[in-house]
Amino acid sequence: MKVRKFFISLMVTVMVAAPILAFSAELKIGFKSEPSSMDPHYHNLSPNNMIAQNTFDKLIKGVTFHDGSPFTAEDVKFTMERAPKVPNSPSSFSRYIKFIKTVEIVDPLTIKLTTHEAFPLTAAYLSTFVIISKKHGENATTKDYNTGKAMIGTGPYKFVEWVPGDRIVFTKNDAYWGEKEPWDKVIIKPISNASARVAALLAGDVDLINFVPTADIDKLKKDPEFKLAQSVSNRVIYLHIDSDRDESPFVTDKKGKHMKKNPLKDLRVRKAISKAINRDAIVAKVMEGHAIPAGQLLPDGFFAISPKLKPEKFDPEGAKKLLAEAGWKDGFGLTIHGPNNRYVNDAKICQAVAQMLARIGIDTKVDTMPKNVFFPRGSKLEFSLLLVGWGSGTGEPSSPLGALLHTYDKEKGLGNTNRGRFSNKALDATLQEALRTVDRKKHEELLIKATEIAIENLGIIPLHYQVAIWAMRDGISYVARTDEYTLPTSVRAIK
Fold first, then answer.
1. I need a labelling partner for 160 at 20 to 30 A (CA). Which of 201, 263, 385, 419 fits?
2. pLDDT, tens only, 49-106
3. Cβ atoms within 10 Å of 271's Cβ, excluding its own
4. How deeply is 228 buried, as exposed, middle or buried, from its count of CB atoms within 10 A (0-12, 13-18, 19+)?
């Protein structure tokens, strides 16, 4: 396999960029979510992966690293050996690499990959992680990436500094192999508060912001000094449920006393929770129309979408009936946990879900927290019901199926983000067969079947797909992306 770049990301263009202006310029971007690390393999999380793409590239050829050293097969091999084993990773890239049995160096620009079995998604999976320099990364720790010592890549921008909570700074890589960038300097400012992010744009402190709060969209649309770009996202917002343990940490009786029995193990209870949620109301009132009710892992238009799976109909009476059938006529107590600075209106969604569950007799408390606290706790299985989001980096359902719903298997790198420890043998077998089936039609059919098994057994409860929205000052344009990434390479100055 020749070392080359795979261009697989799905993009929706909502405006055509005009010619690039020739003058030197500085670009300032307001980000909703600050990355948890500069180490590109530490945490498989969208904010981290976005930042990594400024400094690093995927599989490429004919280029050099920022320090002038050549990019070779040695760097590819080193990356594939390091990425699954970064210490203390909250969510690793292991499942995108462990299908590879061996990595052999044929010559400086050629590698030979041998998979454990036939694997039709090889190209897609290899596009999910960036390649790092063996020279600078061999003895580097995550701290060395955070300080910039090891942040030597082949990407369009060179890393300058990261001041947590304040800024991440890049300068243009004049030796970049691709299209020359118009921005001499890029400053990314983490602004988690939605109102503060909009205020920074209005004041001219930043040129572009992501995750525009739904409450400000109409106001910005009417202001001629600003423009919007948007795309339906591949990110599904969902509930993960503790469906495995006999005893769950945040399940109580109606008086608030911890119970030894976990009702969430019962499919009827999980079905009741799904029926109790009014997705249309969440979309209309909480998301102010800027979302799409979800019935599966990816929205229409992506590969291997099930034609039979639709958003669960709001049916509170049916939900109460199911609870009664499961032996919980009088309900029980529960806490929903979620982040308050990761997804659009995440804390508000938790509140809405809690109110809806209370109406069917599940007295639900809400506990939200910053994402840097929430995700590590969720990965340690500290919660009973949690609000999370997942965007498929491969553009098809094997990504969420393998990460969120396959039985946890550390050795295979499967179920590594299965925070509810859902387990279904039929799903596991179907997904594994899909992953080794080369015939595209059969491969698609198996992925659809696996998705249907997962949703029908409610390994997760899909709520809605986000609509990704950016706002920018007049004079620049942005190419909206379904993966929600905010990249300087997609920002252009216009006349």
1. 201
2. 999 999 999 876 778 999 999 999 999 999 999 999 999 888 889 888 989 999 999 9
3. 22
4. middle
Query: Up-side HSE of residue 258: CA atoms within 13 Å toward CB?
Result: 7
Average pLDDT, the chain: 92
The domain limits of the chain are 235-465
Query: What is the Cα–Cα distance from 29 to 140, expressed in whole angstroms?
Result: 29
> Which residues, at least 6 apart from 439, have a Cβ–Cβ distance to it below 8 Å?
none
| 379 Cβ contact list (under 8 Å, min separation 6) | 90, 91, 417, 419
CATH match of 235-465 with 3.10.105.10: yes
For tokens 């006999």, what's the residue?
246
**How many whole angstroms separate alpha carbon 286 and alpha carbon 280?**
10
pLDDT above 60: residue 345: yes
Burial class (CB in 10 A: 0-12, 13-18, 19+), 325: middle
Burial class (CB in 10 A: 0-12, 13-18, 19+), 207: buried
Smallest CA-to-CA distance from 89 within 150, 34, 33, 48 is with 48
